[in-house]
Design goal:
The complex is a heterodimer of chains A (386) and B (598). With 386 residues, chain A is of the alpha/beta class. Helix content of chain A is 42%, strand content 17%. The longest helix of chain A has 20 residues. With 598 residues, chain B is an all-alpha fold. Classes of the chains: A alpha/beta (386), B mainly alpha (598).
């Protein structure tokens, strides 16, 4: 009997090992070197795309980190009669899920994704070939070339915003102010461990030009040169901000409400998405944008629009993606401050600046750079986080 | 040779042996296999780690993660400090749960406490609520100005500003988890106090033993096994709690192993995450084996004897009303008051403003407004997504409960029947292991295990089946434990009598064993059902749009800070579970208490 049991156990173990080992993608690191290998420009007309999409039927399945896509997709459904199934899901879970869906080739998997966090996207979905960077003639005409790979659908901005009940903006004119012991415990932002774009912002600070800007700003603020205790000014700023009582949150909405609530005796400042700022009056929050913050007033990051390598409705996904770039498809966003279409024909919401203007004071997330350096930044944050 | 074959045939003729073999094979695949996978994942370079581990390819063997986690200059922040925090929180939660739940159990079973009926019902509430919502309630009440925003209700009412250690970090995490699991202590310890053989105390009284000595030398030793059982359940649950430390610890950067694991699985180094998961499983295993070594021989302590059950009740006398009132207030604080706060928060537009003009039902029944408004989603009662989520939650919880309850009962039957054999012991441990694997790690492994076809087992990812399987396996320990306990109380003669007259196994089960154990069987379904209704981390990675459940919607809303909708959904979940729980209790006489206590 014991022998039978041992045999069973051995079989299970062997099965397990075999099964375990087939889990890893075997595509490996196959990033093509030449840009023309990254994507091809499709020449099918939009009407043909729609016709083929109608033939393949619905529902087109979407995963998105942001909810507005649902409203844009509803317009598409109303016009062309193709059903859309929308799911809002966080970036980390989405990347994990899409990788597994494509690897498994499951039925009912996603067709079109709108995802942020360029670092993980590049390493885990693009380099592995799990998603396709679809571009057609019309999309290529609407977008600047640097937005074509990975294909940027829109930008989101996170900027320094402060409670202006008891003060004007003069306190927040230099980024080193949040590390100043006089401002202890006033700075809030979302945890880098719970949303990748924040870690990407820190990672972008490691770029040489930003390090230099930080050094100069330090001198502006204190009048003396920065004495490094870490490798460079970016690490130094992050470490001092953490040591100065940085408050981490899980939600930009909550941080916005915490910073802006009326009747507080602390003059908080937060780094959060600008589109939360838009609801301030309705919520009774007292907030101002610190756009004089020198040298960096925040950051903006792309939300990429990509198609699953195993999409069941590829034409539907292609047609829908293109539709959302058009002014008609973009309509649900037009009143949203802080969201910017990659198609520059779509003007920003009333009272907001264009992304070109913002990019003078904000740091732009660069997928290739963050993909390469994100790990170093994560290690660093982990070493100072407690 | 022939003798061996005969042996084998005789062995296979007993249904209980077939059941045990069935569990060895299925749990081998569904429990041991994931464990092997976790071990393997700690030695592998994952897609996101290629940049980190210099010069490696995906799938390469590496010891990088082990070195970094245990023996690097940053190991303290990556691993040791969170480990230390986890130990503090888990032990503290055990202390809170056992002292609060235990003293409540003693008061209910052995004294003339007032309002017992209502108190015992309300005492179950914290267990029924999703644990993180209790954390949010704590924040609503006690938050101070450290993180800004509207002030907490406590400060608003009393003017007292709560100190930081009270509002965030280790202390509130310990309290919330402890309160969430206090019902375990009440159920397990109360079960023993209720069924205790009164002869022991009577003998002591005849010998004129002092009350205090009786308590120390009879009552305490009697409840010790239950205290230890509670300790294990609460400790391993507290250790794998994720959402509570995430909400209460993050603002002051207080990390425990689960939040650290989440960061790593979510970030670019899942390898660390798997090591942390493995360490957590090992700690839980060690505690389980120590427990078995300590109380192993005394397993069948609650045997129903039918002897004098007339336990003497301790009179609280002049303390009766004060103590009863104190407990009423305490229990209300963890049951009804959070419920009221959820309802209230779901109806106010601007936080912290309780004037009548600020009240609205938009978040319940209003149509979706434009996307730059607060109420940019449809009210939850007219939101198709919420209804779908509720339907899926119910479907999944019913299936998982049927699975866990049925298999758990069968496992209990077979384990007790073959008690003393190595096979029975092996299966008993095997059925308990899912309890020790942190939900998050469990689901990550299932995700990759069922993403591709393995021989005859199809790729189940994206199907309802994978959710049903993981729910069944994860909650099997609850049902199998109560199955084992209840089968231990059933004398062998009953089934033997039927065997002698040639009643087949199937009939013996359906017409003798199950009817006798009816209320335990139903309770064995109830506990997994409730746990599954409020489960989050087990399902969050495995759901797809077609089968998303209500808690995943709720957690997302909580994280995003859409408080009003989230509070409304939370209220709906709790009310649903309460109605079903008390409905079943009324109809069948079963209850969660019996599910845990056996």
């Amino acid at each position: 009997m014991k022998r039978l049991f041992k045999l069973l156990l051995a079989t299970i173990m062997v099965l397990s090992m075999a099964a375990c080992s087939s889990n890893e993608p075997n595509t490996g690191n196959n990033t093509p070197d030449e840009p023309e290998d990254l994507y091809v420009i499709d020449t099918t007309s939009f009407d043909d795309l729609v016709a083929k999409a109608q033939e393949e039927g619905g529902p087109i399945r979407i995963y998105s980190t942001h909810s507005s896509v649902e409203k844009g997709a509803a317009l598409f459904t109303a016009k062309y009669g193709i059903e859309v199934e929308f799911t809002q899901i966080g970036d980390a879970e989405m990347i994990e899920k899409v990788a597994n869906e494509v690897r498994a080739g499951v039925e009912g998997g996603v067709d079109l994704i709108f995802v942020q966090d360029g670092a993980r996207l590049k390493n885990e979905l693009l380099d592995t070939g799990y998603v396709v960077n679809y571009v057609n003639e019309r999309i290529a005409a609407m977008l600047p070339e640097e937005d074509l790979f990975p294909l940027v659908f829109q930008y989101c901005s996170k900027v320094f915003i402060y409670n202006s009940e008891n003060q004007d903006g003069s306190r927040w004119e230099n980024i080193w102010a949040v590390t100043d012991p006089a401002n202890y415990g006033l700075f809030q932002m979302k945890d880098t461990g719970s949303e990748g774009v924040n870690a990407n912002f820190f990672t972008m600070l490691l770029k040489e030009e930003n390090i230099q800007k930080l050094e100069e700003a330090y001198k502006d603020y204190y009048g003396t040169d920065l004495v490094l205790t870490e490798e460079n000014a970016a690490y130094e700023w992050i470490k001092l901000a953490y040591q100065n009582g940085l408050i981490l949150g899980t939600s930009d909405t909550k941080i916005c409400e915490a910073v802006g609530a009326a009747g507080q005796n602390q003059d908080f400042i937060g780094l959060f998405t600008l589109n939360k700022y838009a609801k301030k009056d309705e919520k009774g929050l007292i907030l101002e944008i610190a756009d004089d913050m020198n040298p960096i007033a925040g950051f903006f990051y792309p939300i990429y629009g990509l198609i699953s390598a195993k999409a069941e409705h590829p034409y539907g996904a292609q047609a829908l993606l293109e539709y959302l770039y058009t002014p008609e498809g973009w309509a649900p966003w037009t009143s949203r401050v802080g969201d910017y279409s990659a198609n520059t024909e779509n003007a920003p919401a009333k009272g907001d600046k264009t992304i070109a203007e913002w990019s003078k004071v904000l740091v732009r997330e660069d997928a290739a750079f963050v993909a390469e350096h994100r790990a170093e930044m994560e290690d660093f944050i982990q070493s100072i986080a407690q | 040779m022939k003798r061996k074959i005969n042996h084998l045939l005789a062995f296979l003729k007993k249904p209980q042996n077939l059941i045990l073999l069935f569990f060895v094979v299925t749990l081998g695949y569904l429990v041991l296999f994931p464990l092997v996978c976790i071990v393997k994942d700690t030695f592998v370079v994952h897609a996101s780690e290629v940049m980190r581990v210099k010069g490696s390819k995906i799938g390469d063997f590496t010891t990088y993660h082990w070195v970094k986690v245990f023996a690097d200059k940053n190991s303290a922040t990556i691993f040791y400090t969170p480990l230390f925090n986890t130990m503090k929180v888990a032990l503290g939660a055990c202390f809170v749960a056992i002292s609060f739940g235990g003293s409540f159990a003693w008061l209910v079973t052995r004294t003339d406490l007032r309002w017992k009926g209502i108190l015992t019902k309300l005492f179950m509430f914290p267990y029924i609520m999703p644990s993180w919502t209790l954390a949010l309630a704590w924040m609503n009440f006690f938050k101070n100005s450290t993180v800004g925003g509207a002030q907490g209700i406590f400060t608003a009412l009393t003017g007292i500003v709560t100190p930081n250690w009270f509002a965030y970090g280790g202390f509130p995490i310990t309290m919330v988890i402890g309160l969430h699991y206090a019902p375990f202590a009440y159920i397990l310890i109360g079960g023993i106090l209720r069924n205790m053989d009164a002869n022991l105390e009577e003998a002591a009284i005849i010998l004129k033993t002092k009350r205090s000595r009786m308590f120390m030398e009879i009552t305490i030793p009697m409840v010790m096994p239950a205290v230890l059982s509670t300790f294990i359940l609460v400790f391993s649950s507290a250790m794998s709690a994720f959402a509570v430390p995430q909400f209460l610890g993050l603002p002051v950067r207080y990390y425990v192993l689960t939040t650290q694991m989440f960061r790593n699985l979510n970030g670019t180094n899942p390898g660390y995450g798997y090591i942390i998961a493995l360490v957590m499983i090992l700690i839980a295993l060690i505690i389980m084996f120590v427990n078995q070594a300590v109380i192993g021989k005394r397993k069948s302590y609650t045997t129903v004897t039918g002897k004098s059950a007339n336990i003497s009740q301790f009179k609280l006398k002049k303390f009766r009303t004060p103590i009863s009132s104190l407990f009423l207030v305490l229990v209300l604080c963890v049951s009804v008051i959070p419920m009221i706060s959820f309802l209230l928060q779901s109806m106010i537009k601007i936080q912290g403003n309780y004037s009548p003009s600020n009240f609205t039902l938009d978040f319940w029944i209003g149509a979706a407004a434009a996307s730059d408004k607060i109420n940019d989603k449809a009210g939850i009662l007219i939101n198709a997504d919420v209804w779908k989520g509720l339907f899926n939650s119910l479907k999944l919880s019913i299936v998982a409960a049927l699975g866990a309850g049925t298999f758990g009962f069968l496992a209990g039957y077979a384990i007790v029947k073959q008690r003393g054999t190595w096979l029975s012991r092996f299966v008993e441990n095997l059925t308990f292991i899912p309890y020790l694997i942190p939900s998050m790690a469990f689901s990550v492994i299932y995700l990759s295990m069922f993403a591709v076809r393995h021989g005859p087992i199809p790729a189940l990812y994206g199907s309802f089946a994978i959710l049903a399987i993981i729910g069944t396996v994860k909650y099997l320990p609850m049902a199998s434990r109560s199955g084992v306990n209840s089968m231990l109380q059933l004398s062998h003669e009953i089934e033997e009598a039927a065997m002698i007259v040639g009643v087949p196994w199937w009939k013996r089960m359906t017409q003798i064993i199950v009817p006798i154990q009816k209320s335990t069987v139903i309770s064995g379904y109830l506990l997994p059902f409730i746990s599954s209704m409020r489960e989050l981390s087990l399902y969050v990675l495995l759901v797809t749009p077609a089968n998303k459940v209500l808690t995943t919607i709720l957690f997302q809303y909580n994280e995003k800070g859409w408080d009003q909708y989230a509070n409304a959904i939370n209220f709906v979940i709790i009310v649903f579970v309460l109605v079903i729980n008390f409905g079943i209790e009324r109809l069948t006489g079963a209850s969660i208490e019996k599910g845990v206590g056996g």
